[in-house]
Every structure is written in C-alpha cells, then in structure tokens.
Amino acid sequence: MAHILEWIDQRTGINGPIRAFLNYPVPKYVTRNYLYTLGGLSLITFALQVITGILLTFYYDPSPEGAYNSVDFITYQLPLGWLIRGIHHYGASAMVVLTSLHMLRTYFFSAYKKPREVNWLTGVLLLFLVLLFSFTGYLLPWDQKGYWATKVGTEIAGSVPLIGEAILRLMRGGENLGQATLTRFYATHILMLPAAVGLLIAAHIYLLRHHGMAPPLTERGRALAHKFVPFFPFWVVKDAVLGLGLLALLVYLSYTARAPLEFPADPTSSNYVPRPEWYFLFYFQMLKYFPGELEPVATVLIPLFIFGSMILLPFFDRSEERRPWKKPVTTIAGLFYIIIILIFTVLGATG
Ligand code: HEM
Prior knowledge:
Blueprint: H1 2-12, H2 15-23, E1 25-27, H3 28-31, H4 38-57, H5 67-76, H6 81-108, H7 117-139, H8 144-158, H9 164-172, H10 179-211, H11 219-224, E2 228-230, H12 231-256, H13 281-288, H14 295-316, H15 328-350
Antiparallel strand pairs: 1-2
C-alpha cells in the first residue's frame, strides 16, 4: 500500500495537499458541539443524493409517455429499486431540513460576520439551489402530484409582474406542461443543479478553511479555543458515524413507507387538489392570504424581502457581539421566521 501511495505521489505530488487537508487543526469547541456537524451532514446527504440520482437515471425515461412507467418499474419491480428511490426521496427532505438547520446554527452563532460574509452568501445561494432541486425533482415521476404541483408552481412564477409570462414560458418551454417542460426540469435537475451545488460547496469549504471557524460564544468554548485536534480522524469519524445513522434512517423509511407514486398525470382532471411537498406547505398557505391582485405580494415582495434581508444581513449587522442572548433584534427576527414557518406548515397540512 505504502509503495502504491509513494508511486502516485511521485507522479502527482498529491500526498502533501491531502495530508494538509486531513491534518487541518480543528478547535476543540467545534468537535465538542453537535450543532457543528450539521454542515457535514448536509454534505453527506448531497453525496447520497448524487449517488442514488445517478443510479436512478439508468432506468428513468424522461418523456411524458415513459416517465411514469419507468418510475413505477423502479419502485415495484427493479431489485432494490425501492431502496434507491426511497433514499433519494427521503434524502431530499433530509437535505432541506439539515441545510436549513445548519443555516440557523450559523445565523444564531453570528458566523456570517466579518470576514465570513462571502461564505454566508455562498450558503444563501446553496439553500436556494437545494429548494430548486426539490422543485425540479417533483415533476419527474409525471404523476398527478408532481404534474399539478408544477403547474401551480410555474403559474406562481408566471404571476410576477412584467417578467412573469417570460419566466413561465422559460420554465415550461411553451404554453403548457409537456415534453419541453420535462426535458428542462430533467436537465436542470441532473446537470445544472448538481454542477452548481458541487462548485458552490467546494467554494464554501475552501472559504471555511481559509477563515477557520467563527470564534466560540461561551466562556467554556473560549477555554477550548486554543486546543486543537486534527480534522482526521476526530471530525471525519464523528460526521461519518452520524452519516451512517442518517443512512440507516433513510433505509428504514424507504422500507416502511415506499416513496409515493400517485396515478399517472392527467392534464384533463378537474377535481385534483394540488399539494406541494411538505417543506413548501408554509408558502402554499401564505399564498392563500394574498388572493387576486394581492398575489404579487406573496410571489415577489415577500420572497424578495426574505432573500434580500439574508443577503444584506452581514453588511448591516456589523457589531462585534455574537451571543444571541445579547442581540435581541436578530434573535427575535430569527425566532419570528421559525414560528411563522412552523404555524403556516401546520395550517397548510391540516387546512
Ligand atoms: C449544501 C448545503 C451546505 C453544505 C454542504 C455546507 C457545508 C458546511 C460545512 C461542512 C461547514 C463547517 C461545519 C459546520 O459549521 O456545520 C459549514 C460552515 C458554514 N456554513 Fe455551510 N453548508 C451548506 C449550506 C449553508 C447555508 C444555507 C448557509 C447560510 C445561509 C451556510 C453558511 C455557513 C457559514 C457562515 C459557515 C461558517 C461557520 C462558522 O465559521 O462557524 N452554509 N458549511
């Protein structure tokens, strides 16, 4: 083994950078706190999505005539197809949950402050792309749920004043949902988004290494700030063990409740009530409060305000203070968003 590594190193010079990456000193206050594992777990989930996604493409047929049957075949006939699709299906939810929790961790720890503004911005973009992953993946089985949710989703985009019509046509590839829509969603889902998210994660981790972790918040953390352990094995093993636990949970969910597949898409059905995936329910619920002419408030103003304030946050909140209990404005704003999203999700699920 040592000979092989030496042979490779002599021809590539790769051993030095790998050793530096693995021996990177991680402060002990980081390895002692499980909240710092959320970023790594988001990364592990992304890797699982890429692996299961590639396997799914071997059998998936991206055409309105064949998509449904190919997903049905994967779920009910292909050996272990249920498992691959199940991990991909539940993994999508896990990725949204873990990325959001990781964002909340960095938000409440004020990790977006100087000099980590750009890393925060790559994170905001990552969160947006993770949501786009889910939105584009939803249509692919070409069943009732995906078809009607996408019809409503593209209509929401179409209601944006001035440019809405152009966005709708760009997304659908025409007036209605059809082959062009499926091709566009498929290409975005399996090519553009993985490439963009992969590159952004690389930039995110490069910046993380460049600046190191943001300073600790508590006295106890500060006492550990000058003690370090190497990235490998301490942090890697901890994340890997949690990652295996997550994989076990995804396998369990896939086994006990097969990834859903409704009836084939029927563009003529008039009584189907469209429902988004659970993590978009809060938005679906919010839309109900802005009917008719007020719709652009929910489709343009509120999303612009939320993403705009996330982008501007590090440039406005520039004080030295990082402890959430000493920063009532950002802490209350964060809690307010969390509570509203939870309430709207429950209302959207039960209403
Ligand atoms: C695919 C999504 C993402 C991946 C794979 C990822 C990965 C990571 C990893 C591994 C870390 C170090 C460990 C940790 O703090 O948990 C980290 C740190 C960080 N992430 Fe992310 N992240 C993602 C999304 C986000 C989002 C959505 C935000 C915020 C909007 C964000 C902002 C940050 C910041 C500011 C840090 C530095 C934390 C510090 O210095 O304490 N990340 N990320």
